[in-house]
Each structure stands twice: as C-alpha cells, then as structure tokens.
Amino acid sequence: MTTSSTQAMTRMLQTHPHADRIGHQQALLECIDACFECAQVCTSCADACLAEPDLQMMVPCIRLNLDCADICMTTGRVVTRQTGPQADVLRAQLQACLAACRACGDECRKHAGHHQHCAVCAEACRRCEVACQALLAALAA
Predict the structure, then answer these.
(1) Which of 49, 57, 73, 74 could form a disulfide with 39 if both were Cys (CB 3.0 to 4.6 A apart)?
(2) The whole model's pTM is what?
(3) Pfam families attached here (predicted)?
C-alpha cells in the first residue's frame, strides 16, 4: 500500500467501533499491506512471465503466481475485517497465505537470474510470508 493507503487503514482501524479490541495493530497493518502488495506483484509477474519467450518453462511459475495472488488478496480482505473474527479461520487463512507465498517465492527465485520480474516477485512473496508469520505469532501471544 502507498503511504496514504497505510495512513487511511491506520485511521480506519483507530475509528473502528471495536478499536479497543483490535490488538497487534502494527502486525495487522503490515500483514494487510504485504498481502495486497504481494497480490498485485504476483499478478504482474504472471503477466510478465506470459511475455517471456520460454513460456512453457514458465507455466509452473505462472500458476503459482496466480494462486498466490488470489490467496494473498483473500487473506488481506479477511484480516482487515475486525468484527467477530473466528480465530481458527483467521489462523488457517494466514497459514495458507504463508504457504502460498513460500511456494511462489521459491519458484520465482529459480528464475530470478534470468527474469528480473521474478526477483521482484520473490521479494514481495518473502515480505508477505514474514508478515503473515508475524501476525500469526502476535495472535498466539
């Protein structure tokens, strides 16, 4: 998210009727930011992979990019909702996102030496993986 988006999300959480119950606000904000960024980067990486001359070799990467983008987008939306979250569902969604980011990042790293867009994607996936892990840890505390 851009700085203005992050500021808007911070204000939104602060003005939420359950603001007093929203714990771990920094971990939450970082996770939301990382999820939405990763979704956009993975979608763009899939598109860039489609333009590569060695398209057949890129099929697993494209698939993981698109799966990761969908999971990250959903995770960002789920963790944004603060009214009555189900802890088990929230943890499962964060774990799914973490796994998708790890798989996508690992695949993109394989291509990072030849395709700069894959290097950028691997970095975004790693950031999202770390943010999901941090929010999971904060929720467990």
Answers:
(1) 73
(2) 0.91
(3) Csp
Q: Give residue-wise pLDDT tens across range 33-75.
A: 999 999 999 999 999 999 999 899 999 999 999 999 999 999 9
Q: What residue ranges define each of the domains in the chain, with the CATH number in brackets? A: 3-15+25-140 (1.20.1270.360)
3-state secondary structure 17-84: CCCCCCCCHHHHHHHHHHHHHHHHHHHHHHHHHHCCCCHHHHHHHHHHHHHHHHHHHHHHHHHHCCCC
Q: Please say whether the beta carbons of 97 and 132 come within 8 A.
A: yes
Taking the C-alpha atoms of residue 62 and residue 80, their distance in angstroms, rounded to an integer, is 27
**pLDDT: which is higher, 82 or 67:** 67
Q: What are the C-alpha distances in Å from 132 to residues 34, 35, 78, 128, 137?
A: 8, 8, 12, 6, 9
- Indicate the SS3 state at residue 128: helix
